[in-house]
Each structure stands twice: as structure tokens, then as C-alpha cells.
Design brief:
Elements (H helix, E strand, L loop, with lengths): L13 E4 L2 E4 L5 E3 L39 H36 L5 H11 L1 H4 L4 H15 L6 H8 L5 H11 L8 H15 L3 H12 L3 H4 L4 H15 L6 H4 L2 H8 L3 H15 L6
Antiparallel strand pairs: 1-2, 2-3
Helix pairs in contact: 1-2, 1-4, 2-4, 4-6, 7-8, 7-10, 7-12, 8-10, 10-12, 10-13, 12-13
Length: 284
């Protein structure tokens, strides 16, 4: 079948299988109900000779078990396999196009796409049934984190016009990051350290905030922005150190909010949620 080419992928690897012409590269059925010009007879294995020395493994133990399926059932299975391969290829191609679009908008290197697709193939089961746009940005964030580049979800989604997907992005990222060996806590702890350095807070405040952070159930963190969690934990830790000279004046909601680029109201709201979870006195 070398004289034919697949109209979808351009491959010339065309084979005749069960009365159909099939492209072996992409699985497309080019033509069905093709007349089989081969012989109509079948060769059967000759009958074994019963005389002579005993056979090694006469019962065929350990050999491959072959199931006898009807032609109609085998045909349905083959068609289902071809359709499944075609759908997987179409979904991956759609994801590739979305990855290329997002890398172009975010000014990321083109090789991010190939590495993101490699992660997708490894964790396909966890990514399926998710929005393609959410899959793409999460994969790019994971690739960036592997390379030591900080790609924050909120600014990236704002550039892509996908701000409403923030919760879905955070949930999927928090699910995949630990499986890839990426510590999801590093973002919150790193933010707390940066803010403490900028405001001149003592290390005791940061240590207490880290202790509180590690008591938070991982399931609660899903979908919560790292900035609001870091700011609320710092403010709660500062309340315990209010008696230390200079801490109360440096560690205010407004100061932490300005350092993180968020609203003081966001810090107060998140702090009240965390106080209930950690059994701390509710901030007034």
C-alpha cells in the first residue's frame, strides 16, 4: 500500500486489516468493506504425534493464553481502539495549541511546551476532564517551578484573560506539585520570609508563622492564594509578639498587605478563617 498516503497525517504506512485500509501512524480508517483478495483457506496445525518421548510442558503451562473471540466482537474492539487513539491524539493536539498560545503571551521559551506535554502524558489520568486552558497554565507553572522560575498564577491568568479560573488552577497545581516532587509549601514560606525581611520583623515571628502554616490541613489550602495565606499567618504570629518592642509598629495589616500587593481586608478575612481552623483567638 505504498502508493497511498493518509490525508490526515501524510503517512504512507497504510495496511490492510480485517477488510479495511488503516493508517498505522494515526489509526485513521481510510476505507472499509475492501474485498480481500487473499486465499479463502486456512492452515491448521498438524495433529501432534502421541508416540515417542514425553513432551516438555505437555499442557502448555506458562504459555500465553489466547481467547477465541467472535469476528463481530473483535471488530468492535478494534474500532473502539482506533477511535480511542484518535481522540487521545486530538486532545493532545488541542493542548499543544493552547500551550503554544499561552507561552507566546507570557513570553516563555518555546521548549516549555515539550516538557509540559511530557508531564501531561505521565499524569494524563489526573488531567483529563479538566479545562484545556487550566491544564495548560498549570503545566507551564510546574515546568517553570522545575527550572527555578516563579510563574505566579494570578498575574499569569490576568494576562491570559482567565482570572475566573484561579480556583481551578490552584486546586490542580496543589494536586500535581507533590507528585512531581515540588513542595507546595515553599511558596507560602518564601513569601513570609520576604515580607519579614522587608518589614524588619524578628525571626521569632517568622518561625511562629511557619509553625502555624504546617498545622493547616492540606485540603484547606486548595484554591487559596499563597499571598493571602502568608499575610494572614504573619499577622496572627505578630499578635503573639505584640509585647516585643517594635513588633506592633512594624507588623500591621496595612504594612503586610502593601508588601504582598493585596488588600488589608483580604488579610483580615483569611486570618479569621485560619483562627477557627487552628483554634486561635479570633482577631478583632
Amino acid at each position: 500500500m505504498t502508493h497511498m498516503r493518509c490525508p490526515y497525517c501524510g503517512s504512507s504506512d497504510i495496511a490492510y486489516e480485517d477488510g479495511e485500509l488503516v493508517c498505522r501512524s494515526c489509526g485513521t480508517v481510510l476505507e472499509d468493506r475492501v474485498i480481500d483478495t487473499g486465499p479463502e483457506w486456512r492452515a491448521f496445525e498438524p495433529e501432534r504425534v502421541r508416540a515417542g518421548p514425553p513432551q516438555a510442558n505437555p499442557n502448555g503451562l506458562g504459555s500465553t493464553i489466547q481467547l477465541s473471540l467472535s469476528e463481530r466482537f473483535r471488530e468492535k474492539l478494534r474500532r473502539l481502539a482506533v477511535l480511542h487513539a484518535r481522540l487521545r491524539t486530538d486532545i493532545e493536539n488541542e493542548l499543544r495549541r493552547e500551550l503554544m498560545r499561552q507561552t507566546s503571551i507570557l513570553n516563555l521559551p518555546p521548549d516549555y511546551v515539550d516538557e509540559a506535554l511530557a508531564i501531561y502524558r505521565e499524569y494524563r489520568e489526573s488531567l483529563q476532564h479538566r479545562l484545556v486552558s487550566v491544564q495548560a497554565i498549570v503545566l507551564l507553572m510546574l515546568v517553570a517551578r522545575r527550572r527555578g522560575v516563579v510563574l505566579r498564577a494570578k498575574p499569569a491568568l490576568r494576562s491570559l484573560g482567565l482570572v475566573t479560573r484561579l480556583r481551578l488552577v490552584n486546586e490542580l497545581y496543589n494536586e500535581l506539585a507533590p507528585r512531581l516532587g515540588i513542595k507546595g509549601r515553599a511558596g507560602v514560606e518564601g513569601l513570609m520570609g520576604q515580607v519579614a525581611t522587608r518589614l524588619g520583623l524578628p525571626m521569632g515571628v517568622v518561625d511562629r508563622a511557619v509553625q502555624l502554616f504546617r498545622r493547616i490541613p492540606p485540603t484547606w489550602l486548595g484554591g487559596k492564594p499563597s499571598t493571602s495565606v502568608a499575610g494572614a499567618l504573619l499577622w496572627l504570629a505578630c499578635r503573639e509578639y505584640s509585647s516585643v518592642d517594635g513588633v506592633s509598629g512594624k507588623c500591621t495589616q496595612e504594612g503586610i498587605a502593601n508588601a504582598l500587593g493585596i488588600s488589608p481586608l483580604t488579610i483580615r478575612h483569611r486570618a479569621r478563617e485560619l483562627a477557627r481552623i487552628l483554634s486561635l483567638p479570633l482577631p478583632t
